[in-house]
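Same chain as my last thread, 317 residues:
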Amino acid sequence: MIDAAKFRFDRRARSAALLAIGLILPIVTFAQTQPAAETPPTIVAPSAPTMSAPPVSLPAAPAIPDAAAAPVPATPGVALTLPRDLSPWGMFMAADIVVKAVMVGLAFASVLTWTIWFAKAIELLMVRRRMQTTIDALSQARSWSEATARMKGRDDGSVALVRAADTELRLSAEAMSPSGVKERIASRLERIEAAAGRQMIRGTGILATIGATAPFVGLFGTVWGIMNSFIGISKQHTTNLAVVAPGIAEALLATALGLVAAIPAVVMYNLFSRWIAGYRALHADASAEILRIISRDLDRGTFDHRSSDRRRAVAAE
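reply #2:
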């Protein structure tokens, strides 16, 4: 009985062992093929002794405004002193009294320059045309009587030349030496030519003065305006460009007006100098034509009867 029971026990034990091996073997095989992620060991810090402390209230941090959206604070008093109109007229009205005086003087000089240009240009064009007509008439005359006949009815510079030559011929009726007569007539004609040149050059000296001094007058206005700008900076204690810009703009306007007055004056003066030199050359040509006609008549003896008539008139008296 004991052996039979032992046999049944051993048989059951073996069956249980085989069942356990059949269940554990697949689990071990799966664990070897798919290893589980290792979990790092958790380090537990030693707990510090807790102390009861009252809560501390921290002040709230101020909000930082956006730099792009924040408006730029204006300097006190700057917005009230800046001119709103930066046009030429607005800058003139906002300028200092000294800068205003400079601008007014330069504007007057510019108007005077163009007035002289208009008047002198018309005068020179007219006298040059008349003198050229006179030269053409004298070049076609064959004798002095014909030349004087052609000059009747004229009222220009050429008439003065003809009258001066005729006056010298009458005064030299008793001394009709050809060389002496021509020398005396040439002297009279030279004086008339010089007087005509002085008359034509009258007024051009103003152009020379304006052309030489207007840039420096404008520069004076510029220096004065910039000086006022720096004084404004020192008074308002700011280096903002808006404080300096109006004064500098007014100063540059004065410089611009100086150049506007000076440049045309210089150009016109040079132009008139050439025109007057051409007019004097025409006067010299007319004088040369008169001397040629008189020299031709002297060689012909045309003026001998004048000297005899003069002597008879003196004897009769």
